[in-house]
Amino acid sequence: MFKKVLIANRGEIALRIVRAARELGVRSVVVHSEADADSLPVLLADEAICIGPASAQQSYLNIPNILSAAIISGADAIHPGYGFLAENAQFAEMIAEHGVTFIGPTPENMRMLGDKATARRIAREAGVPVVPGTDALESVAEALAAAAQIGYPVILKASAGGGGRGMRVVHTPDGLENAVLQAKEEARAAFGNPEIYLEKYVEEPKHVEVQVLGDGKKVVHLWERDCSIQRRHQKLLEEAPSTLPQEVRRGLTGAAVKLAKHINYQSAGTLEFLVDREGNYYFIEMNTRIQVEHPVTEMITGVDLVAEQFRIAAGEGLRLKQKDIISRGHAIEARINAEDPDRNFRPSIGKVETVLWPGGTGVRVDSHLYTGYEIPSHYDSLLGKVIVWAEDRQAAIKRMQRALGEAVVDGPGLKTTIPFHKKVLDNAFFRRGAIYTNFIARRMSE
Amino acid sequence: MFKKVLIANRGEIALRIVRAARELGVRSVVVHSEADADSLPVLLADEAICIGPASAQQSYLNIPNILSAAIISGADAIHPGYGFLAENAQFAEMIAEHGVTFIGPTPENMRMLGDKATARRIAREAGVPVVPGTDALESVAEALAAAAQIGYPVILKASAGGGGRGMRVVHTPDGLENAVLQAKEEARAAFGNPEIYLEKYVEEPKHVEVQVLGDGKKVVHLWERDCSIQRRHQKLLEEAPSTLPQEVRRGLTGAAVKLAKHINYQSAGTLEFLVDREGNYYFIEMNTRIQVEHPVTEMITGVDLVAEQFRIAAGEGLRLKQKDIISRGHAIEARINAEDPDRNFRPSIGKVETVLWPGGTGVRVDSHLYTGYEIPSHYDSLLGKVIVWAEDRQAAIKRMQRALGEAVVDGPGLKTTIPFHKKVLDNAFFRRGAIYTNFIARRMSE
Amino acid sequence: MNPKEVKAILQAMVATDTNELTLETPDYKLSVRRAAAVQQQIAQPLAVAATQEQDVPPQTRAQTAEPQQQTPAEKPAASDCPGCQEITAPIVGTFYRKPAPDAEPFVNVGDRVEKGQVVCIIEAMKLFNEIESEVSGVIKKILVEDGEPVEYGQPLFLVEPA
Amino acid sequence: MNPKEVKAILQAMVATDTNELTLETPDYKLSVRRAAAVQQQIAQPLAVAATQEQDVPPQTRAQTAEPQQQTPAEKPAASDCPGCQEITAPIVGTFYRKPAPDAEPFVNVGDRVEKGQVVCIIEAMKLFNEIESEVSGVIKKILVEDGEPVEYGQPLFLVEPA
Q: Which residues of B are catalytic?
């Protein structure tokens, strides 16, 4: 095992890694910006090194200063957390050149899965279903032929597009010709490039992701998480397991292991799928890092994912066997963000004057808050995560309602997503598991 | 299920019951003394009723006021927690006369197990081993004969004694005559009654207790807890499961179920045993209530014991089957008391100015503290419990060390047992499971 | 901002011999002047705290509980009657003003009562407990409705001692 | 802004014999006037926190952490040299006073430096980065030992501008 780990992150995930390191007997060095100098991970770490001013570009993304911090502190490993440098293959290579181990996948793993097109190709090679679609369309006739083969509805997307712009859903062949012409025009106007392609439109999908662990040879899955409760592609509430039928769960997790094995995946990773109402699942992308919502998987399996990342990176190999990883009960995570749900989730900053986290049976809290903490304005708005476990989904919902009911995170002008989560938990569609990626837009806006 | 439960207790256990009630959809009424008016369970309950001044005698033990509070609030059940009225059979009968359900065992259960002599008799009837011993000794010859049959060492105890006074351990027949004469003399001097009896002396025993749940017909066990870390019969740190060999665990738990079934036990209960180095176990007594250390059992089994108490009292019967109750991983609880370990555990009171409880993977906190809370001087010193779960005992010890390392409970002059627990966790004997009821006296005093 | 915090500020001002203080935040404005130890003036903060409290419906209390800012029992302030003394409930139960449904109340506002005189009944566990006044004087206010439940220590009457 | 902070400011005012205080930030505005109003000054509540920090030995830091009372980096107070300016580390690395092991130091205490003059080297990722003075003046103190690691923003020299 490593002697000293440098943690190149901040907030709750930096604290999560400090905790894992301490339990493994590894000393921790937290690097931080000036704005995070009095943050909880900095205070609880064995060592802390300031690496730059508040701006993430000059601190948490400042590779030379982070690497220098590793060298002067004598760290033999770096854990990147999520975001920032977590999926930067070049960073992983650079630190390896200095004899420091990257706690995460290999640079090759990251590069193969780094862009969606390559990831799709690899999935097809591995025999894992992806959303059926075309390359750039040459003609309307080609679009009609492809749509006929794939089946309606289909969606037209700009090759240069992103963020939902320039998309157009077509339900019947009648509308396709016009739609292609209009979508090309829109794409040209919006992105200066008229190229478009066509994909099957997955209606009201669930966003379900499979957690895997690999050591470069063996791969196991730790079941799936349902992360359909999203607002503008930002996950807000996650649960494990999903409410999908057993055979779909088996299919999904099997596909995930197949893909991860195909590329000799190392460390913790997550394969994201869209699942339609018939239980068809389509691989979208793989996140080659620990994720914000990893605790729900820890709660149902009893596995400490971050500790396993350490063990794998230290060359101890994968010690878990698939048959020992049992999905037990149900877990839900609510992300507590400093955002005002009544004002379009506008970020809310300020001083935290009162913090009272929930406790008791089946409740876990991961948060870097403390009474008197000033929320910096430079980073994301995640203040902490409340995670509950109970014997089944209904009991977990009640437990989360109880837990959020006793949570207090308050300060002058400070707003959080706690009231929003309470509304979600109270929603009849949510309660019966009728959750799709459009849940918030469709069921929570009035 | 009940509509409204009155909680006749305070502190962390009152909060524990408020939480269970909320998750079950039962409204909660917390009764409280004037000194506890701004305590967390009072603030988090649906209703609160003041029942008397600070003195426990005039408030938490004030049966007329508690019963009146149940009547005026319309509560249909009372949960007594632990201590106070929890094992008062008369209280249970009185509230039943007013149509209010006692969440706990039947008055008959409580009476049968209320005194040690009756409990011993019942255990013998049920075929459960008790510490072998005699009735009052008539002569030295009788003592010699009994000791020869039981085996040395034996202990002489005053029939009127208690609290360790007037006891005398004898290792060989040579010393017995003198010891009997001296013990009689001491008993006469100390208690005005020379009557003594003889028992097998269990050397360096472990204190192991079995958690059971019964519905008056069926009984299941939820494995055992090792509570050997005690200071003057006060438990400080508990764990589940014990480190006993599997066959001893099976024997103990089987004996516990046999005894509880013999008396048609209802609700949650705990059977305490002494276990000697050879794995012989002897029943001592049964606690007919939920116990402070119940969370370690909840952590290894996933069962919510307080919720099960509610269900059983509401007549829903025992829904758990023995085969589904699996002991998984290892859990440890550290009691955080407002006591100064450096000054003979002298109680320490005052205002809590800083509270930062640990969080993260496998950590549970049950506490009624909040920043600004004034610890009243009228009640016991328990401020909260930190409970951890991990895959095995060594990992749980490391996790508890990590958790206590980040815990802050501070205020002017306030001392807690946190530093003491850290020393216990660091002790080599503790770490290899060499813990007996004399552990603190023998290993922790310098 | 709550009364404790204001008090802490005022105590700090006294201790430091400070005469004026103004504090404005997005949430409140506090101004204090301690001219030659005579005038003492507190601006809105108490009202702010009180308003927030009232906005919380009792049934959602648990959801919005902020322990630090709550006071335990909502005892009516004796301040509407300066110099008055309270008669409080010595036991938990149901408050009755009359010995029997068709009888006259034991006391009415304006009545003079003597120490030891029965002023009401509290029913507890089917027993009717006569509650005696702890003070002699005139009943200025009756704080509980007939038939309402009362908790230990709850003020029942305000009496102007005489 | 909380009462403790106000109290700290008031105590600071007493300690510093300050009579009036006005403090405006995006979040609040504080103005205080004490007894015989003459001067106007802004207090330094941060100094209070800094003192507590020194009591905590670094090795037990994690065990005794009380976040509210800690300040981050143990920056040497510039106060031993009033009016001095700090030259701080712009990058993370190892501090060297000399261009080579057998060479003379770039600067010594008492030397005059010009803005833009190289005062030390910080080695980072096997590169030697020359650090230039941001100010012209006289070196009053060198705050880091030769060969010691430095973090971003760490004060290296105190310079009296001239």
A: 289
pLDDT value for D44 = 28
Per DSSP, what are the bridge partners of residue B52? Answer: B33
Contact B16 A360 (CB under 8 A): yes
pLDDT digits (tens, 9 = 90+) for A344-376: 999 988 899 999 999 999 999 999 999 999 999
- Chain B hits for A302, Cβ within 8 Å: 328-329, 389, 391
- Tell whether C70 is covered by a domain: no
Upper half-sphere CA count for residue A210 (Cβ side, 13 Å):
30
Shortest CA gap D125–chain A (Å): 6
Query: Which domain does D21 fall in, by range?
Result: 3-65
Q: Exposure pattern of A129-153 as b/e (b: 16+ CB <10 Å)?
A: ebbebbeebeeeeebeebbeebeee
* Amino acid at residue number B359: G
ipTM above 0.90, yes or no: no
Mean pLDDT of chain B: 94
Asked if residue D144 and residue D103 are part of one domain, the reply reads yes
C73 domain-assigned: no
Amino acid in position A218: K
Confidence of residue D71 (pLDDT cuts 50, 70, 90): very low
Looking at the domain assignment, is residue D150 inside a domain? yes
Q: Which of A123, D14, B343, A249 is nearest to C15 (CA)?
A: D14
Q: What is the pLDDT of residue A445?
A: 76
Query: What is the count of residue pairs from A and D with beta carbons less than 8 Å apart?
Result: 79
Q: What is the DSSP letter of A322?
A: G
Assigned superfamily of B132-200: ATP-grasp fold, A domain (3.30.1490.20)
Which one of C67, C73, C125 has the shortest CB-CB distance to B50?
C73
Query: Spelled out in words, what is the top-level CATH class assigned to the domain A4-103?
Result: alpha beta
Nearest to B405 among D62, D67, D68 (CB): D62
- Beta bridge partners of residue D29, listed in sequence order: C24, D24
C94·B72 Cβ contact <8 A: yes
**Do D45 and D91 fall within a single domain?**
no
Tell me the pLDDT tens digit for each residue of B62-109: 999 999 999 999 999 999 999 999 999 999 999 999 999 999 999 999
Q: Are A105 and A288 in contact (CB under 8 A)?
A: yes
Residues 40-59 of B with CB under 8 A from C: 40, 42-46, 48-53, 59
Contact assignment for C65 to A413 by CB distance below 8 Å: no
- Sign of torsion, CA B95 B99 B105 B109? positive
Q: What is the CATH number of the domain that holds C133?
A: 2.40.50.100
Q: CATH 3.40.50.360: does it fit domain A206-443?
A: no
Q: D3 to chain C: which residues are within 8 Å by CB?
A: 4-6, 8-9, 12
Handedness of CA A63, A67, A72, A77 (dihedral sign): positive
**Residue extents of the structural domains in chain B:** 4-103, 132-200, 206-443
DSSP secondary structure string for all residues of A222-272? EEEEEEEEEETTEEEEEEES-SS-HHHHHHHHHHHHHHHHHTT-EEEEEEE
Which of these, A230, A225, A227, A229, lies nearest to A242 by C-alpha position? Answer: A225
pLDDT tier for residue B441 given thresholds of 50, 70 and 90? confident
- Write out pLDDT tens, residues A129-156: 999 998 889 899 999 999 999 999 999 9
Give me the helices (H) in D30-111, please: 45-54, 61-64
Instruction: Please name the residue that has the structure tokens 């205020």.
Output: B411
The H-assigned helical ranges of A25-135 are 40-44, 63-73, 89-97, 107-114, 116-126
Q: Which of C62, C63, C66 sits opposite A410 (nearest CB)?
A: C66
The predicted pLDDT at position B321 comes to 97
Name the domain count of chain C.
2
Dihedral sign from CA coordinates of B147, B150, B152, B153: negative
Contacting C with CB below 8 Å, chain D residues are 1-4, 6-7, 10-11, 13-14, 27-35
